[in-house]
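User: structure tokens for this one?
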Amino acid sequence: MEFTPLEIRDVILVTPKVFEDERGFFLESFREDRFAATGITAKFVQDNHSASARGVLRGLHYQVQQAQGKLVRCVAGEIYDVAVDLRRSSPTFGRWVAVTLSARNKQMLWIPPGFAHGVYVLSERAELLYKTSDYYAPQHERSLLWNDPALAIPWPLVDGAAPTLSKKDADGLPLSRAETYE
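Assistant:
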């Protein structure tokens, strides 16, 4: 596995070694000792699987208590995956990083606790599998406004059309009004 810190160094792109032949492929999607050697020592407690259609934007989600680290991979289709640093003590507070994850590139993204996370579906359909370092706690979940001008995230909107959002995501708060971490 190759571990590449992004512009916000705590967010890490994980590229597994893929063994491919005429039968298909094999890869290790998680191996505790290799992750720990790069500083990712999260204990994963929950696995999630989601599917969405083209143009769906989920996020930017975070939990103000029971903050979750997430190891995200796209197993069908293609997504634009975004992490926003909400740690006030961080020199990168309010900055974001993004990568394209796909079934084809087989890459994963490690997003540590303290970040808001969002995905936008680029393909006709996409499926994500992601591990979390704490349990889902809906009473602590918050949504950061996906199109907050202060963040200026250049979402690659399909045909420039508005994304399909849940009410919760449409009602997300701008960074200036959002609850954040110390």
